[in-house]
Amino acid sequence: MILELNQQSAISNQQSRIIMSAKKNWPLWEVFVRSKNGLEHRHFGSLHAADAEMALENARDVYTRRNEGVSIWVVESKHITASNPEHNGELFEPAQDKVYRHPTFYDLPDDVKHM
Amino acid sequence: MSEEQIKNLEAEFEARIARDEKIEPKDWMPEKYRKTHIRQISQHAHSEIVGMLPEGNWITRAPSLRRKVALLAKVQDEAGHGLYLYSACETLGISRDELYDQLHSGKAKYSSIFNYPTVTWADMGAIGWLVDGAAIINQVPLCNTSFGPYARAMVRVCKEESFHQRQGYEIMLKLCEGTPEQKELAQDALNRWWWPSLMMFGPTDAESTHTEQSMKWKLKRKTNDELRQQFIDQTVPQADILGLTIPDPDLKWNEDRKSYDFGEINWDEFWQVVKGHGPMNKERMKARVGAWERGEWVRDAAMAHAEKQQDKKDKQAV
Fold this sequence. Notes:
Chain B: GO terms for molecular function: phenylacetyl-CoA 1,2-epoxidase activity. With about 120 residues, chain A is of the alpha+beta class. Chain A has four helices and three strands, in the order ααββαβα. Helices cover about 30% and strands about 20% of the residues of chain A. A three-stranded antiparallel β-sheet of chain A has the order 2-1-3, with helices on one face. Chain B has about 325 residues and is mostly helical. Chain B contains 13 helices and two strands; from the N terminus they run ααααααααααββααα. Chain B is globular. The interface of A and B includes residues 50, 63 and 84 of A.
């Protein structure tokens, strides 16, 4: 895309979107950081980078400027498959009536210790 | 979807927010909620990015190494804050390029405070003390806002912001303890930044168009006027410690209200700057767009390199 910005702003939004999509932009990456050993990696946010190595370096600068982490994972966002909240009913509701999966479901006399 | 169905969804949505539930990106949301959030979060991100310019101006001229590392770190934080916020905004289905395009074409707004010039070193002190002070008051309530990615970004931003204000106040303090000329610099900076800082809270409640809706969605917890009053009440004693005079002859403690009364804000000036006629609007956009355009070949080269590396890997795998 070799377009001067002033030209670009003169054309419609939709057109400029088409032009922009013709050019390959830095993809989006999701960043996971382990804040200290013993803890799991947690999702911290996302960022754009040309490749995995740059994503790691950028993640270090964007998300760990104050010793927030000891380990970073990055994964390109497009590789994440997410559940759809509209299907939350069929996905998660079946667990709600399975109280027998919890220890409090079982009636035991108070005298029974260590259980 | 029928109008009736949408009405029901909207009612359920509002009820979720009223119960303090968070809204996450893939949840159903009213179009107006999405648009309002894209507008506010992107304006916020743009403000962080443009906000680097007035201070970046002084990095090479900081008076000591201590001041230089602090200012560098502060400006780097602002870049970081802009990036947290852009990625929060992108979860609403708008691309980074569209967001940049809106900023660069002048379609999107950013905080007007950055359209004022930074002419002396004391301005670095006044900005940290007043501008970051006002920003903190605006931002703290957003840590509890209804949209999850925005709230999470704000928690991180607020944690980092307090060093910004303290480093600014320390600059002011040192100038005020210095020679009469240095103290004069500090007073001059306060004179120039005081009123624009008060304007950072936006128009008066009577003039503010978005307040009611924003309160409902917890994009706002207090009104513009309440936040402005809070800022004045906490800043006046800080000026007293510096031995500086707030440039408002009508500023007076009101014993009944337990608050400061203050003079009339020049709203004409506010609207002029919002509309693009502030002292530095053109300069800021020129610097921002210039940096983006001069960086284009670097971004393209990085992408080309990444693709080549990938090709190489793919071939080795065969």
